[in-house]
Amino acid sequence: MTQTNSYGAGLAPSAPVITVSTLNRLARERLESAFPLCWVSGEVSNLTFAASGHVYFSLKDAVAQVRCVMFRNRAQLLGWRLENGQHIEARVLVTLYEARGDFQLNVEAARKAGVGNLYEQFLRLKEKLEREGLFASEGKRPLPTFPRRIGIVTSPQAAALRDVLSTLTRRAPHVNIVLYPTPVQGDGAAAQIAAAIGSASERQECDVLIVCRGGGSLEDLWSFNDEAVARAIRSCSIPTISGVGHETDFTIADFAADQRAPTPTAAAELAAPERSTLMVRLVDYRLALSRLIERNLDQRSQHLDGLARRLQHPAQGLAQQRDKLLNLQRRLDNGLTQASSRGRNALASLSRRLVFARPDTSRIARRLEALAPKLHGEWQKSLLNKSGDLARIAASLSHLNPNAVLARGYSIVTDGKGTILRDSRSLEPNDRIAVSFHSGRAEATVTSVSNEKIKPDAQ
Prior knowledge:
Blueprint: E1 3-4, E2 10-11, H1 20-34, E3 38-49, E4 55-60, E5 65-70, H2 72-75, E6 87-97, E7 102-112, H3 115-131, E8 149-154, H4 159-171, E9 176-181, H5 189-203, E10 208-213, H6 227-235, E11 240-244, H7 252-256, E12 259-260, H8 264-271, H9 275-310, H10 314-357, H11 361-400, H12 402-407, E13 412-414, E14 432-436, E15 441-445
Parallel strand pairs: 5-7, 8-9, 8-10, 10-11, 11-12
Antiparallel strand pairs: 1-2, 3-4, 3-6, 4-5, 6-7, 13-14, 14-15
Helix pairs in contact: 4-8, 5-6
């Protein structure tokens, strides 16, 4: 249900009422959250440089335009000057200026239109050359410590040349300078820069080569992002220093060079040590060398004094050797005397021990003579006893001799297998037997078998 007031408008009784500033603030917050940082391209118009350092302008295309502001801290980093009619690409934050309710873009950074494509080309070339190893640290050469001649590849009209010459004149006035003039910007500049580097490499009249130019936009420095320049730097027979642009500027030449300097002035400082510093170091070295020589001379003098104290006349040395020889001779005589005395004492002691240990041979001989007859009698007696025993044993053996038994008329009967037969019960009629006599042997056939025992008288 709605309620009509005096204004004739239908409003809900609970609808909130907000202020203009709140509305603008909410609109700004919604815009900034809805649009992240983005790049916008357009033509610069209505350009104004405020006393505060802020820059105000509009970006437009064929059908629309938008207000833009670049605050002082961002404008100082731009590196080039905005002008009406320029086509740029701006990195912006979409917002609302609350005080006037104006829709605007806060410009964080800007570049000339087409620079984005140039930067992509830069990255592609850098990646390609890096894969080839053109930027590898292993191929970097050290700069000479004390160069006698320095080459410079740049434009004779460049401010960078004046900076380099001023720095070298101040730091190292004794160093000779060789200029290899070349354009550093514009069409064909890259080829001429590469040719100047190649000329310096062929002539080999310098100890180090500086390739430099002053700062500028990416387009201004583009000649030093050329592949031919990078390859000329790497193939140069002279160590090279790249001093192109400002500290924040990086080019392909910087990566290809043996040493990168942030500015042309810094390149000159890298190329040649400061003369005053070298003079101070030289004085320090001279003082250190003088102290070292003086200390060495003192040590040698002390050593010489020691040798002089050890030095003596040959006659004195001979006398010392003679005294030493006499002393050794006395020691040898005393040693021989003592050894001889010890030997005699030992011999006397052994003689006494031999006398006590030697047996009484005469007494033993007399005892042997007394025991000899007794031994002979005992031997005869033992011989007779052993002879009797031998006779008895021989008689006993003769009774056991089978041949002796056969000689008394007995015989030995064996069967067909040669087994001795002791019992008639082991025979059967018609068995073949063999009868062995004291002399000879006979074979027979059993006709009958009787088990009767033989009577002793019949034997």
